[in-house]
Amino acid sequence: MGLLKRFARLAAAENKLSGIIPASIFNSSAITVISVGGNSFHGSLPTNIGLTLPNLEGLYLGTNEFYGNFPTSITNASGLKILDLPYNKFAGQIPTNLGDLTNLQELNLGDNFFGNNSTQDLDFIASLTNCSNLRILSLSYNNFGGNIPRVMANLSNQLTQLFLGENQLSGTIPEGFGNFVNLYSLGLEENSLSGVIPRDFGKLQNLQFLSLYQNNLFGQIVPSLCNATTLYLMDLSFNQFEGGNIFDNVLINCQNLQYLDISQNNFTGIIPPHFLETHSSLIAMVLSENSFTGSLPPEVGKLVHLVNFSVSHNQLAGAIPISLADCSDLENLYMDANFFQGTIPPNLASLKSIQQLDLSSNNLTGPIPRELEKLQFLSYLNLSYNDIEGEIPNTGVFSNASQISLIGNNKLCGGIPELEFPPCPVIKGKNRGKLKVVILLSIVLPATLLVLGALLLYFLVYQRRKKNGGRIL
Fold this sequence. Notes:
Number of strands: 34
Radius of gyration: 35 Å
Shape: elongated
Largest sheet: 17 strands, parallel
Strand content: 15-25%
Low-confidence stretches: 465-473
Distance between the termini: 136 Å
Oligomer: single chain
Mean pLDDT: 92
Structural class: alpha/beta
């Protein structure tokens, strides 16, 4: 193939190819595009690739098994627009003159082993400020360390996607991200970032995707965060954010939210009914491990598209709303470790798609609704540590001890033997029929004798009266 002098494009992506790419291909100076992503190729890139392929415009090697260091000569391919290397095993440092590729539009180095967890790992960012057409920058899932360089705020305002997640980055998020007025995806998750969310995040009017989970961020959320009315995913989980009115102060303006995760923080306050009424587009809502109080409003039934819902480990009380049954798409429902009380609504059995249901560690009473036996997709049911009572059903999910947990309910009985609950004190079969006869006789026989006695008394009185000429005595 290397002998094909006018060979310009190699497109073999998304196949089942393996082995190495023939070295002769990297000597075909006419090549402008190499696209072999989604295969099982391995090997390293030639160190002189930028010299032998001076006309290269697109290099797509993602999702293979390439390894080795980043080829520094790549900066000689001055026409390069797309450098796409994710999901490989590349390692080492990125050349600090990478910005010599002034036509670069997309740089995707995600899911490799770049960087050494050092403060110099991101020094190449400064040179990328020369790339005025840069739209996509993904450095996530690598070994980059140090702080996010302040100079990053000077990157192209054409940037639409910026991903720095799952590295070893520390320090605060610098001001200036608000300059990326066209940004619609921002991922900074799984680092060691601290401090507050910069106020200029409110300038990101086109933001659709925001992922900040698993950092050390704290403070209150800036109200302007939801100025981006297009925001559909917000994940702030596993941080130290706080505030007593996040729904009314911040989230109420995120009208198009579909995925909301604010779990594992220090939020307080109630879940207001009007928020639930106005956010029917929510597909996932995860509020677990905060300090929310009050009841779960019946307006939760307005979330008709909800698939995943978790309010576990809060301080919610009151009854479980029967309106939850209106969330017909629910697959995972977690309400454990609260103060819910009352009985388990039988109409939860109308959640035909439910797969996981956890109501454990509450104050629930009454029997287990037998209707839950009919949920054919239910594979995990946890009702432990409540005060429920009565007979345990034994079909459906209740027929598999590994799929249910009922411990801590001392008033339950029956169920399959593997659950090890005492048998219920109920007479069954023929004995139940005998019991019915005994009960019937105990009621009917005395009543019959009473009637007969009354008739006999009347007859005797009547006969004596007749003998005495109508007198009783």
